[in-house]
């Protein structure tokens, strides 16, 4: 799709942070002076991110994904076309950064009951993302797919992630037992040269593979083949997704806090974190956007939750992301947000125009408590509830701001993802930490290797065996 300047401005995401300021929150809000006092820190973060754009050695290759994938995109589109023609099921095997992006894009841009639609009403095969090793889930997936008619996209940068590789062993065994040629049923998305999937591909005689570049970490990989192949298989316009990301990049080219949406979000979150707001709630008012919260939770938590600064000092910082859904969680969590501790920032994701309006018919005319709804639309109702919740939080002195999408589509999702990625990179720079590593995840991975007898982990196994539960503390 050709994107005109008019389309770009019509689809521009807006950030309204009035409800973060002292204008309505009084002494619970952030003053213009406080924001001004953080201008130079924000500018330095902006410069840091700009100066390191595309640097693989710093894991900042993701900044260039909207621009440097012309050939890859062509290959993805070609491969996706073949997959759509040949298979009835498309299953992603991956976890963390290799799964949350595909889940988010699927939910945001496809029919909410996609797998239940008849084939003619779907643009691609039935779609599943298996991001757990729950044995029940594995077995029950196999109850609803036919491996002979399934393409498995194995996504793992390292090819050493126990969860994904266990799943791979299960499906390759099943395919072999069914008399199928494994390499005809799998597509790998992995590192260019290192990693076990590269070795497996060689053993199988060359599996169709896509590369996840050295400088792109899992949680920043949705705009790489990790996210683009599943999206293309689903008929999502991946070029438009990338154009939306490029547009957001352009909007964020300036260090001016009044103009750069990602920088103002990062700065406000930074100020809030420093003031003890240790919880960041992301609350989309849209079922299509509900899994943006899962994707964002990993991005924000794994990137900012660190115990050491770049200068080597101890820090133990980060902000705990909480996922909420409007309006559903108004009836679950909003009581806490309104009256509980002052330890949160609530970010609303609002939609100006939903793709469906769903009119509410007139009825129950003798019951005014119900009849007032007639003649409105569900769209009006959800938008009103969004506004009302923001108002109620503000009245209660609670920090909140709103990111508005004119509509949910490929372009705006691309904008949103890139905004959050830049926001995270800026916030990490302000906190002076390594945003792109995840040493805290490694300990658990290694302990799992030890427990399951991976060679080289014998001493850790002994340590784990000795750390038996103490009977005194078991009830
Ligand atoms: O963000 C990350 O780096 C992680 O969540 C990884 O994506 C996740 O651990 C999976 O790793 P891999 O792609 O190597 O299987």
Please supply descriptive tags for the structure shown above.
475 residues; 12% strand; five-stranded mixed beta sheet; alpha/beta; binds 5-phosphoarabinonic acid; five-stranded parallel beta sheet; Rossmann fold
Could you characterize what this model shows?
- The structure is a single chain.
- The protein is of the alpha/beta class and 475 residues long.
- The protein folds into two domains: 5-53 and 240-431, Glucose-6-phosphate isomerase like protein, domain 1 (Rossmann fold); 62-238, Rossmann fold (3-Layer(aba) Sandwich), CATH 3.40.50.
- Helices cover 45% and strands 12% of the residues.
- The strands form three sheets. Strands 1-12-11-7-10 form a five-stranded mixed beta sheet, sandwiched between helices.
- A hairpin with a 5-residue loop joins strand 8 and strand 9.
- The N and C termini lie far apart (63 Å).
- The structure holds 5-phosphoarabinonic acid (PA5).
- 5-phosphoarabinonic acid is lined by residues 95-98, 156-158, 161, 164, 217-219, 302, 438.
Question: What layout of secondary structure does this protein have?
Answer:
Layout: H1 5-10, E1 14-16, H2 22-25, H3 32-37, H4 39-51, H5 70-86, E2 89-93, H6 100-109, E3 126-130, H7 135-144, E4 150-155, H8 162-177, E5 186-190, H9 196-204, E6 209-211, H10 225-233, H11 238-251, H12 261-274, E7 279-284, H13 292-304, E8 306-308, E9 314-317, E10 320-323, H14 334-339, E11 344-351, H15 368-371, H16 378-395, E12 400-405, H17 410-431, H18 439-451, H19 458-466
Parallel strand pairs: 2-3, 2-4, 4-5, 5-6, 7-10, 7-11, 11-12
Antiparallel strand pairs: 1-12, 8-9
Helix pairs in contact: 4-17, 5-10, 6-10, 6-13, 11-17, 12-17, 13-17, 18-19
This protein binds 5-phosphoarabinonic acid.
Residues 95-98, 156-158, 161, 164, 217-219, 302, 438 line the site of 5-phosphoarabinonic acid.
């Amino acid at each position: 799709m050709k994107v005109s300047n008019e389309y770009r401005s019509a689809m521009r995401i807006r950030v309204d942070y009035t409800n973060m300021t002292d204008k309505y929150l009084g002494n619970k809000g952030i003053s213009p002076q406080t924001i001004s006092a953080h201008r130079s820190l924000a500018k330095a973060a902006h410069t840091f991110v700009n100066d390191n754009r595309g640097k693989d050695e710093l894991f900042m290759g993701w900044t260039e994904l909207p621009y440097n994938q012309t050939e890859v995109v062509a290959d993805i589109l070609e491969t996706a076309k073949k997959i759509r023609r040949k298979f009835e099921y498309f299953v992603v095997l991956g976890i963390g950064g290799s799964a949350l992006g595909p889940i988010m894009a699927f939910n945001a841009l496809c029919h909410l009951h996609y797998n239940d639609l008849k084939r003619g009403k779907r643009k691609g095969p039935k779609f599943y993302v298996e991001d757990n090793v729950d044995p029940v889930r594995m077995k029950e997936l196999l109850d609803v797919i036919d491996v002979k008619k399934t393409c498995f996209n194995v996504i793992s940068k390292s090819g050493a992630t126990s969860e994904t590789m266990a799943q791979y062993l299960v499906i390759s065994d099943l395919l072999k037992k069914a008399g199928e040629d494994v390499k005809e049923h799998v597509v790998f998305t992995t590192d260019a040269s290192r990693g076990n999937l590269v070795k497996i591909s060689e053993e199988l005689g060359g599996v169709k593979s896509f590369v996840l570049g050295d400088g792109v970490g899992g949680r920043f990989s949705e705009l790489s083949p990790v996210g683009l192949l599943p999206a293309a298989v689903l008929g999502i316009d991946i070029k438009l997704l990338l154009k939306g990301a490029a547009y957001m990049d352009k909007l964020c080219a300036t260090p001016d806090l009044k103009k750069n949406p990602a920088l103002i979000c990062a700065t406000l979150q930074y100020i809030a974190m420093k003031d003890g707001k240790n919880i960041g709630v992301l609350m989309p008012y849209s079922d299509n956007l509900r899994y943006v919260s899962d994707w964002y939770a990993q991005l924000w938590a794994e990137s900012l939750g660190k115990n050491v600064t770049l200068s080597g000092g101890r820090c133990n910082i980060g902000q705990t992301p909480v996922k909420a859904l409007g309006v559903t969680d108004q009836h679950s969590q909003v009581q806490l947000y309104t009256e509980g501790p002052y330890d949160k920032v609530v970010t609303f994701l609002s939609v100006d125009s939903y793709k469906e309006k769903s009119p509410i018919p007139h009825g129950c005319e003798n019951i005014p408590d119900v009849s007032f709804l007639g003649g409105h639309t569900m769209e009006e109702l959800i938008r009103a509830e969004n506004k009302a919740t923001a108002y109620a939080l503000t009245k209660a002195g609670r920090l909140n701001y709103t990111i508005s999408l004119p509509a949910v589509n490929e372009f705006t999702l691309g904008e949103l993802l890139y905004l959050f990625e830049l926001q995270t990179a800026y916030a990490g720079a302000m906190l002076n930490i390594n945003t792109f590593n995840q040493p805290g995840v490694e300990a658990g991975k290694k302990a799992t290797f030890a427990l399951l007898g991976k060679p080289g982990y014998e001493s850790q196994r002994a340590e784990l065996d000795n750390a038996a539960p103490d009977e005194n503390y078991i009830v």
